[in-house]
Amino acid sequence: MTTSAQADTTWWLPEDVAHVEWWLTGRGRSRLWQLTSPATLAEWVFADPVPAEPEPAPASVDPGLPSLNATQMLSWALVGFVIRMAVPEALSTAGQHWHVARFDLGDGPILRLVVGPLELLSLPEDGGEVWLRLAKLPLELATDAGMLDMDTDWPERGIELRDDPTVTFEEDKVLLTCPDLSAAIGLLLQRPIVASLRMLAAGLSSKGYPFPRKYRRDHATKAWLAGEVWCAVWTAVQAGLPATRQGFDEPYSAPALPARVPKQRSYDGDAYLAGVQEHDRLCKILIGHLRRLGLTAGTRLHGVPVDLAWLDDQGRQFIAEVKSVTTGNATDQLRLGLGQVLEYRHRLALLDVPVTAVLLVSQYGDPAWWGTCDDSDVVLLAEDDLPIWLA
Asked: So where are the chain's domains?
């Protein structure tokens, strides 16, 4: 497997970038060149892979991630990982150059990622054999450099090359199958494989796209956000950390808000909406701060409904309860938040999962709350504390 220590240019040369540029230029006129250029894409193919950020997603819709079981989540996450890692200008070309389809022919739901006129990836939603198309050139370069062993390593892991019945880029691509999700993500954690995906996806994106009516914003968004699961694994592996733990159950997504909340005497609908939006804003601020530190946060941990959870760069587990606080509700929110994070820490301790507990609030005016949380070994943070907090 390629690691960060191997992240150099020893397996490709500048003339390989020039060849990809020539190959893309040969696609002729394309809407893609309104967003980028063949030269830029050729450099991107071989550049150090960095996944697109989870936010903003392709659409502001509820992706329905909590309704997925663990295997389904990982299947959607694999689709989202490929989109965010390998589809050029993915966010701005959703529904114009690519789409995610989910269909059932009687043997269970199938997920498909279609880029341009061709299926790039397909797999059963409930787990099973993964089909993947790759460009040949990066595979050949990496094989010649000794970074890939398609003849021995792939068969040992159940990865097989198949006859591809499609004619698009017939001489330039291969079709392969992985026996399961684990084998597929193990393959995709290798940089030459990402380069092969990027090259083929760039070529396909430059061709016509005949499926605009099949685009589902909810499917694209669900895959995009679920992809954070495997993006976290990628980040950990490239940093030399173990990929078996990600520090959370599922990626964070903004809560779905009703268009209108009825006002009642005992229930202030406007205040409720403002509180939910403030909670989401604080969560995203903390996620962004952690990302700048090279860490990835998600939500829930071992079934415990924590707001956010993550691992630091030494593998230590953190959880955070997030509370929106205004002048009139500070005491109630701080009491509620502290009680919740203590409960969650206790439930995780029963599962033999030690954690560092964090309570993040919009603000706290009474300094006694800092001591109260410190006495309970809980880190109390206000929004203004985050820029200097090292997690």
From this structure: 4-231, 245-388
In this prediction the pTM is 0.66
Q: Which of 247, 250, 244, 245 is nearest to 228 (CA)?
A: 250
The low-confidence residues of the chain, meaning pLDDT below 70, are 1-9, 62-67, 236, 239-246, 255-272, 274-275, 327-328, 391
Q: Please state, in angstroms and rounded to a whole number, the distance separating the CA atoms of residues 13 and 15.
A: 5
Residue 144's CB is within 10 A of a number of other CB atoms, namely 11
CATH 3.30.2310 at 245-388, yes or no: no
3-class SS at 111? strand
CA distance 30 to 23: 13
In degrees, rounded to 5, the angle at the alpha carbon of residue 381 between the alpha carbons of residues 378 and 385 is 145
CA distance 215 to 94: 8
Q: Which amino acid is at 106?
A: G
Tens digits of per-residue pLDDT, 229-253?
788 777 767 766 555 456 777 777 7
Point out which residues pair with 317 in neighbouring strands: 311
